[in-house]
C-alpha cells in the first residue's frame, strides 16, 4: 500500500493543502489569542528578505522611514467620516492602562493615516516642505472573523507609506510610482510572480481614498490575491487634519496625500502561487537556504566532498547548508527540504 | 548682546538639554497618547543601523529570528508568580475587539517570556532540540508614569531573545555570551561607549529571573544608564510552561531558559553620552550622513567643486550629503548639521 502523501494534494483541497504546507514546513502557527500568529524562523527569514528588498525600493523612490505609535486616540478616527466607518467593526480597543481605566479609550492601530495626518500637518509649512515622503514598518491589528495564517490575521506586519504633495497630479504620479517601481518591480523580480495592476472599484476602495490602485497575483487555485495597494486620498485627510501649506505666491493651500502598503500576506501569496504537492518552492532571491548539500552516507570520503561543495558555493556568495544528519533516513530528510522549498538540492555519497 | 544658545547648556540643566536636542535635531516627538513617541527620519535611520549591527551579532551567536504576537491572554501572566507581580502595574489591556467585549481580556505584550514559553515547550521534545535560540524584533508596551522620549516610553522597540538549554551551566554561558559578544561588543565598537558589565542585585532583577546581567554606560551628567540586560531565568518559566525534554538516557528533564534585550533606549543613551552643547554627536558607523559638504556660496566654480567632493567620498563608500541651500544663511545651516551630529563637515566656496 502506498504511503499517504505528506500534504493534502492541491487538487483535492487547496485550502487544506495551504494549511498543511504552513504547518509542515514549520512556517507559522496560530497564536494563543484567536487570529494572531507565531511566525517561525524559516518564514521569518523569508519575510526579512522581502522587507529588505521592498525597503530598498521604497528608499529608491525617495521616502524616509519613521515610526509612529501603536496606540491612537479613539477620537482621531472620527475626524474622517468614511475612515471611521470603514474601520469601526475591526478595531481592538485598550480601555485599561497602568492598572486604571483610561479617560479616553485607545485604539490599536489598524492603519495610521490619522496619526500621520496630525504630525505631517505640523511638519508641513511651505511648498518647500513638499513632497513629504514617509514610510514605516510596523504591526497593525484588525479583528478578523475568519483568520487564516499570513493571509488574514488579526495582527499582521507591513509597511505603510504616507505622503503629502502640492497637487493632485503629483499625488497621483507618486501613487503610480510606488505601484510600479516598488510593488510591481519587487513582485516580478523577487517574488517571481507576474502581477496584474489596476484600479479598485469605488465599492472596494480604501476607506477615505478617492482612488485605490492594486497589484494582484494569480494563485495556484486560479484565484487572484491582492498583494499590495496604493491609495490616492485626495484632500480628505489633509482637510480632516488641517494639513495646509503656503504656496510660492504666499497663498494657503491644502495638501494632497497618498498611502500604500504591502504586508506579511505576501508570504501567503508566495506559498499559494509557487507551492506544489511536495511543499513550498522558493525563488532563489528569497530562499534562506539556496542550496542544500545532503550527505547521503558518510563513506569513502563523501563527507569531505560534501563539505568542499558547501565551501565552494558559500565562497561564491551562495546561502548553503550542509545536511549531514546521516542517522536520519534519507527519505525523511528529502521530504524536509522539499517542504521548505530549497531551490537546489545536491546529494553526495 | 550675545544670541541665546540654541540648546539649554548641559551644565545648566541636563534633562532640559536632552529634551532640546531631541526636539531641535528632529529626532522624536511625543505621540498623541501619553507616553508614546513619534520617531522622526534622522533618529530612525540611526536606529536602523543599530538594529542591523545588533542583529548581525545575534545571528553570529547562533540565534534565529521569529515573530510572536502582540497580544497575550491575561491568564498567561498568572502562571509565573513573580512575573505577574512585576508587570501587573504596567500592563495595557484590550477589553474590546471587533465591536464586542472579549471573553478574556488580552494584554499588550510588555515582554514575551510567557508566550515564548508556551510554544518553545511544544517545539522542544528531545535533547537534540537544544539549545533552542530565538530572537524577535518588536514593539512592547509598559504603562510609564514618567515618560521620557527614547529613555522611558509607554511603547518602545526592542529585540527580545529567548533561549532554552539543557543545563544551568549552558544557560549561564549563553547569557554571558550575549552580554559580551553581542551587547558589550556592539556598544564598544559601534556606539563607541565603554560599558560596565555586571550583575543586578536581587531586588533589581527581572521578574522571574534568578540572575540578571547588565551593561551600563556613563552619561554626560555623570549618571549610569542601563543599556541592555541578559537574564538567566533558571527553570521558573520552563516549570510554568512544562518545557521539558528527554535527555540522552530517555529521562524527562526540565529546560533552563534565558532572555535578553536592548531597546530604542540606546538612542537616548547615545545622545546623553556623546552629545554636547552644540547637539548630537554621532559615531561614524551609525551616522546616517557621515560627511556633509556645505556649499557656502555658489561662485567661481565652487558648486562643481562641492559636487566633485561629494562624488569622490560616495565612490569610496561614504554616506555623504550635499547642502547647497545657498539661499539659507550659512549660520543656520551650520547649526542644523551640528544639531544632527554629522561627524564631518566640509565647507566649500
Record keyword descriptors for this entry.
349 residues; 3-stranded antiparallel beta sheet; homodimer; alpha+beta; BirA Bifunctional Protein, domain 2; 17 strands; Rossmann fold
Q: How does this model look, in words?
A:
2 copies of one chain form a homodimer. The first copy, chain A, folds into 2 domains: 14-274, 2-Layer Sandwich (BirA Bifunctional Protein, domain 2), CATH 3.30.930.10; 291-348, 3-Layer(aba) Sandwich (Rossmann fold), CATH 3.40.50.800. Helices cover 33% and strands 28% of the residues of chain A. Chain A has helices spanning 14-24, 41-60, 74-77, 81-87, 113-123, 168-189, 236-240, 265-274, 302-315, 330-340, and strands at residues 28-30, 37-39, 64-65, 71-73, 92-97, 100-108, 132-141, 155-165, 195-199, 211-218, 224-232, 244-246, 252-254, 256-263, 291-295, 320-323, 344-348. In chain A, the strands form 5 sheets. Chain A has a 7-stranded mixed β-sheet with strand order 3-7-8-14-11-10-9, sandwiched between helices. Chain A is elongated, with a radius of gyration of 24 Å. Chain A starts with 13 loop residues before the first helix and ends with a strand. The model of chain A has no long low-confidence stretch (mean pLDDT 96). At the A-B interface, strand 2, helix 2, strand 3, strand 4 and strand 5 of A face strand 2, helix 2, strand 3, strand 4 and strand 5 of B.
Amino acid at each position: 500500500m502506498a504511503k499517504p502523501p505528506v500534504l493534502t494534494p492541491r487538487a483535492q483541497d487547496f485550502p487544506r493543502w495551504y494549511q498543511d504546507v504552513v504547518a509542515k514546513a514549520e512556517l507559522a502557527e496560530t497564536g494563543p489569542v484567536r487570529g494572531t500568529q507565531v511566525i517561525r524562523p524559516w518564514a521569518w527569514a523569508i519575510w526579512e528578505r522581502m522587507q529588505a528588498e521592498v525597503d530598498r525600493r521604497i528608499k529608491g523612490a525617495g521616502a524616509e522611514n519613521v515610526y509612529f505609535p501603536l496606540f491612537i486616540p479613539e477620537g482621531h478616527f472620527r475626524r474622517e467620516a468614511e475612515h471611521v466607518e470603514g474601520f469601526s467593526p475591526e478595531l481592538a480597543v485598550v480601555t485599561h492602562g497602568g492598572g486604571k481605566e483610561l479617560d479616553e479609550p485607545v485604539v490599536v492601530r489598524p492603519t495610521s493615516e490619522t496619526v500621520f495626518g496630525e504630525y505631517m500637518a505640523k511638519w508641513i509649512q511651505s511648498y518647500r516642505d513638499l513632497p513629504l515622503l514617509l514610510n514605516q514598518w510596523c504591526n497593525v491589528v484588525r479583528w478578523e472573523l475568519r483568520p487564516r495564517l499570513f493571509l488574514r490575521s488579526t495582527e499582521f506586519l507591513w509597511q505603510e507609506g504616507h505622503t503629502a504633495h502640492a497637487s493632485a497630479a503629483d499625488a497621483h504620479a507618486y501613487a503610480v510610482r510606488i505601484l510600479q517601481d516598488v510593488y510591481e518591480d519587487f513582485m516580478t523580480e523577487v517574488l517571481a510572480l507576474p502581477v496584474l495592476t489596476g484600479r479598485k472599484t469605488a465599492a472596494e476602495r480604501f476607506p477615505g481614498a478617492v482612488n485605490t490602485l492594486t497589484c494582484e497575483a494569480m494563485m495556484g487555485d486560479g484565484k487572484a490575491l491582492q498583494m499590495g495597494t496604493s491609495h490616492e486620498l485626495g484632500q480628505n485627510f489633509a482637510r480632516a487634519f488641517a494639513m495646509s501649506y503656503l504656496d510660492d505666491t504666499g497663498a494657503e493651500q491644502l495638501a494632497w496625500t497618498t498611502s500604500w502598503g504591502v504586508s506579511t500576506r505576501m508570504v501567503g501569496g508566495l506559498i499559494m502561487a509557487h507551492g506544489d504537492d511536495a511543499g513550498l518552492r522558493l525563488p532563489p532571491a528569497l530562499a534562506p537556504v539556496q542550496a542544500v548539500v545532503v550527505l547521503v552516507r558518510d563513506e569513502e570520503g563523501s563527507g569531505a566532498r560534501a563539505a568542499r561543495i558547501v565551501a565552494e558555493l558559500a565562497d561564491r556568495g551562495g546561502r548553503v547548508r550542509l545536511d549531514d544528519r546521516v542517522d536520519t533516513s534519507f527519505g525523511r530528510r528529502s521530504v524536509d527540504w522539499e517542504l521548505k522549498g530549497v531551490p537546489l538540492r545536491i546529494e553526495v555519497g
